[in-house]
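User: Need the bound-state model for magnesium ion:
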Amino acid sequence: MMRKYKIALIPGDGIGVDVLREGTKVMDTICSLGGGVSIEYKEFDWSCEYYLKHGRMMPEDGLERLKDFDSIYLGAVGYPGVPDHVSLWGLLLPIRRHFQQYINIRPVKLLRGITSPLANRGPNDLNFMVIRENNEGEYSNIGGRMYENTPMDMAIQNSVFTKHGVERVLRYAFQLTQEMGKRHRLTAATKSNGINHTMPFWDEYVQKINKEYPDIQTDIVHIDALCAYFVSKPDSFDVVVASNLFGDILTDLGAAIVGGMGIAPSANINPEKNYPSMFEPVHGSAPDIAGKGIANPTAAIWCASMMLEHLGEVELAQEIMEALQIVLEEGKWVTPDLGGSGTTVEFGDAVCHALKELR
Ligand code: NAI
Ligand code: MG
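Assistant: Bound-state model below.
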């Protein structure tokens, strides 16, 4: 019996289109090698270009059209010409929220073949997970603007932290820490000194949920210090859990210490599987290199692996990671961001070739 998956593709803007093509090529290759999996894709052209034509990022029934897919595979959204808050609030955030993708998983893991910019740090030192709250927190659209174009011009944006939202992300992080084993250590990002309502609330629930996981040692660390520790002692983390904004910022730093934006993958997960989950590189559309064919597809290919893992295809997911690391180690086809002269397509082809060799 074939195991069949239906995947919605949203390449989006800029390099999102290029890197997603390589990710699907890698998935097609692994399916063609046997193993009983077949993937059916449907591509959606929702993007800033779509916005400029239609006045919206996706059609009115966009979410309805996505809801029956097994997963969503997204490139990047946002491009000069359309304000970033328009593209984000018109597509990515509605998908994350409507589909209750309240967990954002971002591995900070140094792959074989990549040199960290941190001196004397190897794959054993850089290997942890960041769990970012993905549905509420600082990215709430509650607030407003008043007295625009007057001397009293002002804006207010409220953060939203709910018991329901905070408990579920923390419970997920504790559970993951338990399953990951290692040292049973969970680090929670806070800023309860300066932000004196929502962050003490967050800390209180960290301590409360910790009682359900008595084996786990939690460290509640202020976000500013935590940024420094990502650089000075990255080997001390197993799982880091953070609110929406803190997790967003931390993970660009996380990406930087394991080789840059071209590497870092992310998964927007609805753990209950009531809705499709969405897999997308951490990076954006990179207008500075768009159209040059030199975007690093590593993050997108890693996302494909995370997607297959989420769908239950753990072996295929591991094979992709193995092939990816063979190509990175070999170094011949790596893209300019990693110091090579390979193109996006050459790198993707090399991963497909490595997959075939592995079999
Ligand atoms: P960016 O991630 O697109 O680019 C930052 C820097 O990293 C650039 O120098 C770029 O060339 C480099 N870079 C990124 N991905 C790369 C890759 N795969 N290979 C090689 N180099 C890579 O972030 P930026 O410039 O802040 O945003 C550009 C646009 O993307 C904006 O419109 C922004 O809103 C959007 N964006 C979308 C995201 C998403 O769809 N999830 C996430 C971040 C930004
Ligand atoms: Mg970000």
